[in-house]
Amino acid sequence: MKANSILALAFLAALGSYAKAAEDEIVNDSLMLDVVVTGTRAAVPERAIVSTVSTINSDQLTQLERVSILPTLTEQVPNLFITQRGVMGYGVSGGAAGGISVRGLGSGTGQVMVLVDGHPQYQGIFGHSIADAYQTMVAERVEVVRGPASLLYGSNAMGGVINIITKTPQTLGGACSSRTDLNLGAGSFNSVQFDAHNSVRSGKFFSDVALNYQGSDNHRENMDFYQYGGVAKVGYDFSQHWRAWGTFNMTHFAASNPGSLQAPLLDARQWINRGVAELAVENHYAKTSGAVSVYHNFGRHKINDGHAADAAEKDYYFRSKDALTGVSAHQGFGLWKGSWITLGFDYQNIYGEAWNSSIETGERLNRKMEQNMHYPLDKNLTEVAGYVDVRQDIFKWWTVEAGVRYDHHSEAGGEWVPQGGFVFRPLRNGELKLSVGKGFRVPNLKEMYLYGVANPDLQPERLWNYEVAWKHRLMGGRLTYGVNLFYLKANNLIGTMMVQELGRTANYNTGEREHYGAELEAAFHINRHWSLNTNHSYLHMDSPLLAAPEYKGYLGAQYRVCKLELTAGLQYVSGLCTNVANETKENVALLNASVAYHLFPQVKLWVRGENLLTQRYEINEGFPMPKATVMAGIHVRF
């Protein structure tokens, strides 16, 4: 189906919805205006921008008392899927999970970007996110842009972004307030989780500090995992218009990889340290707002990729360190009625170093890193970009938005990135969005300089995305539904093939992909006791892709009465490809649920069960997922 056909059908469907629901409903504006920042870098109502943004609030993130953010995103966001391999721990390197796919585009190669407070978070050499670093304890909410966001965030935002917005304490009952949460749980396969969180607001000063630990033997031998970390955020409000804040986040994890059932491994283990430091100054006025920030994302990795039972033990570790240092500045202006113009500047330096070291002595080995591979890597790349985004309201029912970015990469050269669209509001509580945008991804250090398939002449991957969306709020905002149709075409994709001019197998720009699909979201707050939410997505791909199901559906229900809270969610996934070569696919229904009881106002007891239908399934081929698992714990607040 071509893009213009999708747009035409969706436009007719939206007109039909408008004709059928043309009553002038009066609703509570506070329920209508879901404020987001990811689509514009400024706090604006989601209904006023052309981007498709899903917001997962703190209540949704904490309903099942999960340590990691990512399983909740898989349930709550249509056409977003995240791979798993065990009870806890995603890991890195061979056999790893935590791959994020949005509309068939993946984070494994950097096509989907994870942000923390709008700043990029990815491994500098391999260009992918580090899934075990994204913990629920740091998040106030998560905003997901489905579709290219390269206009604002540059390379690696080709297929979308996940923006983890950290907590900023507000005044709780007075000028000075403090709150502390302790959460402890234990369950199947010797799994444990613990986190402690403290928020302080004292006049103009605020702080938010958290510590966490999680660990599990997991359900297979040689698959143990543990992770611990902490985050500290401090800030000061100089006035109602100016704020400065800084944050430091550090996490360490170790994971064992037993290998697939078909090819088990011994001694496969990894030790990973990741850290983030940020400093920002913000200003907020009625006619202008913006921020200047500096950030430094860094990591050190030590990996033993293991060996088969009948093979010799490895005598070396793969070692790497990387850093992503950047400066970001943006300022928005309302120069005339109904206008908002954002000007922005980004600078990044990406550094990566990789080598092998002796397991016995720890010294660096002066030899090729593997057979037929390049010598150790030590490289810097830089990116400089500027962008402008213009949004204009025309009357009360029409908004036009358009922007362009120019991004210059030290190796790949320059790239122009346009984006634009329209928002029509035929109803006060409904809007129709039509948008088109370009995304791109610059090749990473591994693809250009590491291993025998490296090619320093690679060019950026590119795509165009066309989308139409309808969102409607009914019954005073208690019922909300939205429908999206999209078509994307990517080209210049990087693959590995025999390249005649190079005389060897190498990475090369050759691939094309064509995807289209549909997404549905709905939420219904029935009354003060009951609420329901559901989402469904269909994805058509021109050829199968790993971790990109053809259909994903979720139905969730929450019931609250007196001291009792019940939460249940049923997710169905079909057409999930686990092996591209032979097109092996999985279909699975997963039921997760939790029960919480408030023993006292400050003390909550909870139990969580996952895969309660005891389904046998795989997401990573050769890594069967566990059957039903249970965790129970206590949450104390004071």
Summarize the structure.
By secondary structure, the protein is mainly beta. The chain contains six helices and 32 strands.
Fold blueprint:
Blueprint: H1 3-20, H2 29-32, E1 35-36, E2 44-45, E3 53-57, H3 58-62, H4 70-76, E4 80-82, E5 100-102, E6 105-106, E7 112-116, E8 119-120, E9 139-146, H5 150-153, E10 160-166, E11 176-187, E12 191-202, E13 205-216, E14 225-237, E15 242-256, E16 269-284, E17 288-304, E18 316-333, E19 339-358, E20 377-394, E21 398-409, E22 413-427, E23 430-441, H6 445-449, E24 461-474, E25 479-499, E26 504-525, E27 530-541, E28 551-561, E29 564-579, E30 584-600, E31 603-610, E32 629-637
Q: What's the overall average pLDDT, rounded?
A: 90
Major beta-sheet overview: 22 strands, antiparallel, barrel
Spatial extent as radius of gyration: 24 Å
Termini separation comes to 56 Å
